[in-house]
């Protein structure tokens, strides 16, 4: 019986591990960068999709590897360009002069019950 107990424990550990990892991946893939121009939604893109998006007249948003950053901008202050890349839900990069906002949305690690 002892041998079987061990097998059972190992089995549950593997199942728990796989489940945890799967949730983690889902959470990450669910995150996306939402770009707003002048308060209106302009485009949303997955953080895991490598992309360069030209926003408005001169803002270039780059996504990929789970984060987003402002690659270039034609605004005078360049605050948005110097902002560190954002990756966590709720974080954002704001370009005030050009009225461009990049916001991270999506669940970090929550199970979406509607998907089952
Ligand atoms: Zn700017």
What does this structure look like?
With about 120 residues, this protein is α+β, with helices and mostly antiparallel strands. The protein folds into two domains: about 1-30; about 30-105, N-utilization substance G protein NusG, insert domain (mini-chromosome maintenance (MCM) complex, domain 2). The chain contains two helices and seven strands; from the N terminus they run H-E-E-E-E-E-H-E-E. The strands form two sheets. A four-stranded antiparallel β-sheet has the order 2-1-7-6, with no helix packed on it. A hairpin with a 4-residue loop joins strand 6 (about 90-95) and strand 7. The longest helix has 29 residues, at about 1-30. The radius of gyration is 20 Å and the shape is rod-shaped. The model has no long low-confidence stretch (mean pLDDT about 85). It binds zinc ion.
What are the main properties of this structure?
single chain, 116 residues, alpha+beta, mini-chromosome maintenance (MCM) complex, domain 2, 2 domains, 3-stranded antiparallel β-sheet, 28% helix, rod-shaped
